[in-house]
């Protein structure tokens, strides 16, 4: 590229940025507080223990008011800086809005200090930037952050900020829904939530019995929730991501899930005439496969692997998919684009298919929400084959294999199928077992010396998909390093004997991985015992997924890795004959099953350990937690297996294995027994001869 071209492009970029900045600045205006807003008071010194406050910021007032007919949302927050660490965050004002359909109006930014009110409102202090917080996931929503860093903010200041955002996403038409909470992660002085509506609204609270005060304003209905001196929710370790600990309020004018389906049917318009390119692709798949299973698999693979994931979700793009013709042409799309493309292709092959709305985080608790399109953040596909079997697919996952009946699907739990007449959420049960089998072979040539470890691991279903994604996106050297780092946490002195080997059986969706290591310091001193040395054998694949709680009491659900099914077999070639007892132990609970078997082959000096672990659910209910806690502690006592021997044995004798093979050793043993037998017969004969001679 020439210098002239580069310079011209540079100037063009500056001009575009200048005009873009000017446009965004024009969308930030200063105005008086709307007349419909109900002004709120607050306590400057609420009865809150400052020891319970984090980051040096105490919220005195959190105020949200929405005028639905005007499509205006008023926000006001008042925060007191209680510690110098709060100055950093307290001096920053950040407001998010979507410029494609919203405008920002600033009302007030003041500081209350030592009885004086200091005005800090200056529109020129604000910069608008595209934050794109989901850019790492290839999602670009086009929203802006209006940011101002205020000067001269001090410890003890009270910041009072208010603004209004005008405009609702037009994709929702006349419908309205919203969710908020009546408490926060730390105590708050006062929380106010006020709605003005033309229509009657449904509402629901979770973890609270607070009911709204109902009234009227200029012929409209009003709904008003208010709490003071709020308490923070209960947080416990390992709570499921879907659990709702806050005092949530859900509000909607959708009367049922069927209303949401009817709304979605207008968004996913099924009147598409395929472009030449799309029709060609559909015909290619139809003619390449003479059965629906092959066509379903081929369509899924094409959408997953040939259409890259990229979401341009500003405005109505957050809900409405691009035309399948356009998605095929541009060869990229987000979840709804890829799913709608797959549904369209299958329908043109006379295969029944539907888009499905998912909440990828709150699926397990989705039944607690009121009907609304806003409760969903993901779109997948449901297919019904000719035998009326239902299958779910996620077109955003790549490198999935297996038959159309066995493709792994995440544990999204509940979903809303966009099918005319559908009135309820559907429970999705994962058909994937996600079995992982590990085969460890330890060879211990001598007591106190080094050992070798050869590992073969077999991954199936979603576990195979995850491993495939890992090795396709990683270099051999990085995988070798990752694997070694893993075993370095288990043993000291680990050396890689050969690079990991991957064998991918895509038809069965099974991946086999082989590894080989030398462990120089496999023998260690027993804890609190300086006379013995030991080797520990543990089913690390199981230890990685079962979670041991710290506390026995539980008020919230306890999350488990699900689905999980692990089989771990350990074979140990010992340096000498070992006296070991046979074990066969099972631990069964409402949440999981665990078994451990140990046996010795004395003729070959080989120890066999077999473990198996399977989760039954994705979480443990509080009422079942005592059972889980007790049983998991039992597992902890038996999951590791040790062999040990006095240190003196390793110093005085090497205990090298016999130089003869097993077959030769067996032959020699037989010969020795024959010789002993012959000698015994000779001795007996001589004794009889002597006795008879004496008698004569």
Helix content: 10-25%
Shape: globular
> What's the CATH architecture of the largest domain?
Sandwich
* Beta-strand percentage range: 25-35%
- Overall average pLDDT: 87
From the alpha carbons, calculate the radius of gyration and give it in angstroms: 35 Å
Structural class: alpha+beta
Largest sheet: 9 strands, mixed
How many domain modules?
A: 4
What does the model show?
The structure is a single chain. The protein is of the alpha+beta class. The chain folds into 4 domains: 29-253, Immunoglobulin-like, CATH 2.60.40.3140; 260-427, C8orf32 fold; 435-648, Jelly Rolls; 664-696. 24% of the residues lie in helices and 34% in strands. The chain has 13 helices and 37 strands. Helix 6 packs across helix 7 (335-347). The longest helix is centred in the C-terminal third of the chain and has 34 residues, at 662-695. It is globular.
Summarize this structure as a short list of keywords or feature phrases:
8-stranded mixed β-sheet, alpha+beta, 13 helices, 34% strand, 24% helix, 37 strands, globular, 9-stranded mixed β-sheet, disordered N terminus, Immunoglobulin-like, 696 residues, Jelly Rolls, C8orf32 fold
């Amino acid at each position: 590229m020439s210098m002239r071209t580069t310079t011209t492009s540079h100037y063009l970029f500056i001009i575009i940025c200048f005009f873009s900045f000017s446009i965004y600045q024009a969308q930030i205006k200063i105005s008086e507080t709307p007349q419909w807003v109900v002004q709120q008071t607050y306590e400057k010194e609420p009865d809150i223990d400052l020891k319970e406050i984090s980051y040096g910021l105490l919220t005195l007032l959190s105020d949200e008011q929405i005028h639905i007919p005007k499509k205006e949302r008023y926000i006001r927050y008042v925060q007191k800086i209680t510690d110098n660490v709060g100055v950093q965050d307290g001096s920053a004002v950040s407001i998010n809005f979507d410029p494609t359909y919203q405008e920002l109006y600033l009302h007030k930014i003041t500081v209350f200090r030592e009885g004086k009110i200091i005005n800090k409102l200056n529109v020129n202090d604000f910069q608008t930037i595209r934050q794109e917080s989901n850019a790492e996931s290839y999602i670009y929503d086009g929203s802006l952050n209006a940011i101002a860093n205020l000067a001269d903010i001090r410890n003890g200041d009270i910041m009072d900020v208010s603004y209004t955002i005008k405009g609702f996403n037009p994709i929702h038409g006349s419908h309205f829904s919203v969710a908020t909470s009546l408490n926060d992660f730390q105590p708050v002085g006062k929380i106010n939530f006020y709605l003005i509506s033309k229509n009657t609204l449904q509402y629901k609270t979770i973890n609270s019995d607070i009911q709204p005060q109902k009234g009227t304003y200029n012929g409209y209905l009003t709904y008003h929730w208010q709490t003071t001196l709020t308490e923070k929710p209960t947080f416990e370790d390992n709570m499921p991501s879907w659990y709702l600990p806050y005092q949530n309020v859900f509000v909607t004018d959708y009367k049922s899930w069927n209303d949401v389906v009817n709304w979605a049917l207008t968004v996913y318009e099924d009147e598409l005439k395929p472009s030449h390119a799309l029709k060609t692709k559909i015909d290619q798949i139809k003619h390449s496969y003479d059965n629906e299973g092959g066509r379903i698999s081929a369509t899924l693979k094409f959408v997953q692997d040939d259409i890259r994931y990229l979401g341009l979700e500003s405005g109505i793009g957050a809900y409405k998919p691009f035309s399948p013709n356009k998605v095929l042409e541009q060869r990229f799309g987000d979840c709804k684009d890829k799913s709608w493309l797959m549904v369209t292709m299958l329908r043109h092959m006379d295969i029944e298919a539907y888009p499905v709305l998912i909440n990828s985080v709150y699926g397990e608790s989705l039944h607690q929400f009121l009907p609304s399109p806003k409760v969903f953040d993901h779109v997948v596909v449901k297919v019904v084959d000719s035998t009326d079997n239902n299958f779910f697919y996620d077109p955003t996952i790549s490198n999935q294999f297996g038959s159309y009946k066995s493709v792994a699907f995440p544990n999204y739990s509940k979903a809303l199928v966009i099918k005319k007449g559908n009135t309820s959420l559907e429970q999705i049960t994962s058909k994937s077992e996600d079995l992982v089998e590990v085969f460890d072979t330890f060879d211990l040539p001598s007591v106190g010396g080094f050992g070798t470890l050869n590992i073969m691991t077999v991954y199936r279903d979603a576990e195979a998909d995850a491993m495939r994604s890992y090795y396709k996106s990683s270099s051999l050297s990085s995988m070798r390093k990752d694997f070694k780092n893993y075993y370095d946490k288990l043993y000291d002195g680990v050396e890689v004997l050969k690079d990991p080997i991957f064998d991918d059986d895509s038809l069965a969706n099974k991946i086999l991985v082989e590894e080989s290591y030398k462990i120089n310091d496999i023998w260690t001193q027993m804890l609190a015992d300086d006379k013995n040395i030991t080797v520990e054998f543990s089913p690390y694949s199981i230890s990685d997924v079962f979670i041991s709680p710290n506390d026995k009491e539980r008020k919230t659900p306890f999350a488990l890795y699900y689905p999980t099914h692990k089989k771990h077999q350990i074979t140990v070639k010992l340096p000498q004959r070992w006296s070991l007892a046979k074990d066969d132990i099972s631990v069964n609970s409402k949440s999981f099953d665990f078994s451990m078997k140990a046996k010795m082959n004395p003729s070959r000096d080989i120890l066999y350990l077999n473990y198996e672990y399977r989760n039954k659910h994705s979480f443990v209910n509080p009422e079942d937690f005592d059972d889980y806690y007790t049983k998991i502690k039992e597992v902890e006592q038996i999951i590791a297996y040790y062999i040990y021997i006095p240190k003196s044995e390793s110093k005085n004798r090497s205990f090298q294995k016999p130089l003869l093979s097993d077959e030769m050793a067996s032959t020699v043993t037989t010969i020795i027994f024959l010789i002993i037998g012959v000698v015994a017969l000779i001795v007996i004969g001589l004794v009889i001869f002597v006795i008879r001679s004496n008698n004569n």
